[in-house]
């Protein structure tokens, strides 16, 4: 067996230990004589899996008691609609900050259900920064304020949260959830697709303050109503059983092997620094994001020459560093260095980049 260093933006690398445990339990989960894939979601053994995953997430993220954790499907993209359907129920208006493709898509979906006010955008410089926000431009009547906390494609991240007062802050954490501690009490809703830091695709995690549940518009499909899932412990219908099981393994790894979120954040900061320090000193490679808004998870960079970029991506893949091509909308390269990417993987990538630079600069 030979495993590569996988820098994919998602679905992405998972901790090897998690994959090994899943493999060892594939045919017989803890003496049940069945794979988790084969189990009834109503069985006692599965009930324990989903409840433990929720309890572990609550412990690791220190989620306050007045928040519900929902395990849904449909990806973060479904949340682009679910948020307005459930929350755009007062003034019918919402504030959005446009920091990339995902934020743009979220705002477009919000606009189907009410009035979207674009508070700020970084489109003018290809989303290479997080716009400075002036709270006096926020709509005090807005039903919510939406941000995309970490912009997977462009490699930017909010370093501080907007002060939205009584207006609930709704945040897409798809590509940064569990990468460092967050103060959940500052948010009305957090949502994230699982396929980066949490597990396989198919699971969508929603963390929602209880008072925001139960006000969905009449037209809201039953499956798109947060209340449906909150009232039924994410078991209104068949949940993404196997993805939740793997998520549970990832949470155990994060707590027991890594040592929790503070420790994870320290490792992530160190990994990102290795790469950014090299980019800042390189004669060939350049980071594309302003320094103060750099993401810890997604690191885009370019050589300034498309042919050389392509050559780099090709040679890197041949050397075992895969999925380094930038998003199709921006080109260049992007190294996604999620929680499961070992420090050694980043060290080796930097060493490879140095060799490439020496041969091509
Ligand atoms: N938001 C962000 C920040 C993302 O990175 C992605 C996917 N890469 C999405 C939303 C869309 O997620 P999904 O494919 O789970 O719908």
From TrEMBL:
The keyword Electron transport appears for this protein: no
Entry cofactors: pyridoxal 5'-phosphate
GO molecular function: O-phospho-L-serine:2-oxoglutarate aminotransferase activity
Entry keywords, A to Z: Amino-acid biosynthesis, Aminotransferase, Cytoplasm, Pyridoxal phosphate, Serine biosynthesis, Transferase
Domain Aminotransferase class V: 4-349
Enzyme Commission code(s) on record: 2.6.1.52
Top-level division of the source organism's lineage: Bacteria
Subcellular location: Cytoplasm
Pfam family, one: Aminotran_5
Pathway annotation from the record: Amino-acid biosynthesis; L-serine biosynthesis; L-serine from 3-phospho-D-glycerate: step 2/3
Subunit structure: Homodimer.
General function of this protein: Catalyzes the reversible conversion of 3-phosphohydroxypyruvate to phosphoserine and of 3-hydroxy-2-oxo-4-phosphonooxybutanoate to phosphohydroxythreonine.
Name of the protein described by the UniProt record: Phosphoserine aminotransferase
Organism: Solibaculum intestinale
Name of encoding gene: serC
């Amino acid at each position: 067996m030979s495993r590569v260093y996988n820098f994919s933006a998602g679905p992405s690398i998972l901790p090897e230990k998690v994959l090994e445990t899943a493999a060892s339990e594939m045919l017989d989960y803890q003496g049940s004589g069945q794979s988790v894939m084969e189990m009834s979601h109503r069985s006692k053994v599965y009930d324990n899996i989903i409840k433990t995953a929720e309890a572990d997430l609550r412990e690791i993220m220190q989620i306050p008691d007045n928040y519900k954790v929902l395990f849904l499907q449909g990806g973060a993209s479904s949340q682009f609609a679910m948020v307005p359907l459930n929350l755009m129920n007062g003034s019918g208006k919402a504030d959005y900050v446009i920091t990339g493709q995902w934020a743009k898509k979220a705002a477009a979906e919000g606009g189907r259900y009410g009035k979207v006010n674009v508070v700020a955008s970084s489109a003018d410089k290809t989303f290479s920064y997080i716009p400075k926000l002036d709270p006096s431009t926020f709509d005090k009547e807005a039903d919510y304020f939406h941000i995309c906390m970490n912009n997977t494609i462009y490699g930017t991240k909010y370093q501080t949260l907007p002060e939205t007062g009584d207006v609930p802050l709704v945040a897409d954490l798809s590509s940064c959830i569990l990468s460092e501690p967050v103060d959940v009490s500052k948010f009305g809703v957090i949502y994230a697709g699982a396929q980066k830091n949490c597990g396989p695709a198919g699971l969508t995690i929603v963390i929602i303050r209880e008072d925001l549940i139960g006000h969905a518009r009449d037209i809201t499909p039953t499956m798109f109503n947060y209340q449906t899932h909150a009232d039924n412990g994410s078991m209104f219908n068949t949940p993404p059983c196997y993805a939740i099981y793997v998520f549970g393994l990832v949470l155990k790894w994060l707590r027991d092997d890594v040592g929790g979120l503070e420790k994870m954040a320290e490792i992530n900061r160190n990994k990102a620094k290795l790469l950014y320090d090299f980019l800042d000193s390189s004669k060939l490679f350049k980071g594309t994001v302003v320094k103060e808004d750099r993401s810890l998870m997604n690191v885009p960079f370019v050589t300034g020459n498309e042919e050389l970029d392509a050559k780099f991506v090709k040679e890197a893949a041949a050397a075992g560093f895969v999925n380094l091509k930038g998003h199709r909308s921006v080109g260049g390269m992007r190294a996604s260095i999620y929680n499961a990417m070992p420090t050694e993987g980043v060290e080796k990538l930097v060493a490879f980049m140095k060799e490439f630079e020496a041969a091509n600069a």
